[in-house]
Design goal:
Layout (H helix, E strand, L loop, with lengths): L1 E7 L2 E6 L11 E9 L2 H7 L9 E2 L4 E8 L11 E4 L9 H4 L31 E3 L2 H4 L1 E2 L15 H15 L4 E6 L2 H12 L4 E5 L3 H9 L3 E3 L9 E7 L3 H9 L1 E9 L11 H7 L2 E4 L4 H13 L11 E4 L3 H4 L7 E4 L3
Parallel strand pairs: 9-10, 9-12, 10-11, 12-13, 13-14, 15-16
Antiparallel strand pairs: 1-2, 1-4, 3-5, 3-7, 3-16, 5-6, 6-8
Helix pairs in contact: 4-5, 4-9
Protein name: Alcohol dehydrogenase catalytic domain-containing protein
Cofactor: Zn(2+)
InterPro entries: ADH-like_N, GroES-like_sf, NAD(P)-bd_dom_sf
Length: 335
């Protein structure tokens, strides 16, 4: 089979690798049918990653099951499934607590698309081994388009987690979204669907702002902090100055969720945060724990993730097209 391999800044290529095989009765083999890049992939391709190449890329896809071990009961060959980005067993103490990105059965940070916690391959590959099939794979609900939901294994479900629990606890909350890509747009859509009373989207890109306005958000290219302006702020830029903007715009006891990939150090306005009494969460997401509920919202017809898909491209275009700057390209093939 082929793996799409990152070899240098803005350079990827197909490399041959052995076909994965079933190693235990709990495993499955899947074939990605709709895969997309996320903010981490974009940072890696731009040369901002912290892992030396070469390695297989990709950790967002909808896939078709091609083979299963004899003890797998939750998926069958031919099923369309969402593959979460992190490797998790489903039975250890962290997994039972919903902390699936911190599974104790695999090395820390075990994931697809980057060899941090071992080499698990990437989801821009012809075939992928899923070591804990019943724990990891989630059937794609009937009627959902694999292209629209290509990001469900990471960015879409992450976006749900960034706002949905908070809007449940604070109905009608005011939401600030400071973003540069797909996560912020998904957040606008989900926040609107779940009853946010006001959404302000901050992004210098005019096309992104147009999409956010289609989700009912007010938009600006840039802003100064808006003291006590919002109950919830979501930052998805990877820039500490924009994280500062978010936390300085919170109402008393407000919450800031940071989904930015903060590869660079920086300082935060700790005194302002102390005086306002804010809660700040910066964390990689335990997608598998809330993926079914996030997919349930997607299947409700109340949200429109397909609007964020900027390009639908053939699988064979991956080596030439992936490094090009696009909002949310989805690469597809018939399987």
């Amino acid at each position: 089979m082929r793996e799409l391999t990152y070899i240098a800044r803005r350079t990827v290529e197909w490399r041959e690798a052995p076909d994965p095989t079933i190693r235990s009765a709990r495993e499955a083999i899947v074939t990605p049918v709709a895969a997309t890049s996320c903010d981490v992939d974009s940072a890696i391709l731009a040369g901002h990653g912290f892992i030396d190449p070469p390695f297989a890329l990709g950790h967002e896809c909808v896939a078709r099951v091609t083979d299963i071990g004899e003890h797998v009961t939750g998926a069958a060959p031919g099923d369309l499934v969402v593959v979460p980005w992190s490797i998790n067993c489903g039975t250890c103490a962290p997994c039972r607590d919903g902390l699936t990105a911190h599974c104790a059965s695999v090395p820390h940070m075990a994931m697809y698309g980057a060899p941090i916690g071992g080499s698990w391959g990437g989801l821009f590959s012809d075939l992928v081994r899923v070591p804990y099939a019943d724990a990891m794979l989630v059937p794609l609900p009937a009627g959902l388009d694999p292209v629209a939901m290509a990001s469900a294994g990471d960015n879409w479900s992450l976006s749900w987690r960034l706002v949905a629990p908070h809007l449940k606890a604070r109905p009608g909350a005011r939401v600030l979204v400071v973003a540069r890509g797909s996560i912020g747009l998904y957040v606008c859509d989900i926040a609107r669907a779940l009853g946010a009373s006001d959404i302000l989207y901050v992004d210098p890109d005019p096309e992104h702002r147009r999409l956010a306005e289609g989700y009912g958000a007010r938009t600006v290219a840039a802003t100064e902090p808006i003291p006590h302006g919002f109950d919830l702020a979501v930052e998805a830029t990877g820039r500490v100055d924009q994280l500062t903007l978010a936390v300085k715009s919170l109402a008393p006891e407000g919450i800031c969720e940071s989904a930015g990939n903060h590869f660079r150090p920086g300082g935060l306005p700790l005194l302002d945060m102390y005086l306002t009494g804010v809660t700040l969460r910066i964390a990689r997401d335990n997608v598998r724990a809330h993926l079914p509920e996030a997919l349930g919202l997607a299947a409700s017809g109340k949200v429109f993730p397909e609007r964020v898909v900027s390009h639908v491209l053939d699988w064979e275009q991956l080596p030439d097209a992936l490094a090009e700057k696009r909002l949310k390209p989805v690469f597809v093939r018939d399987c």
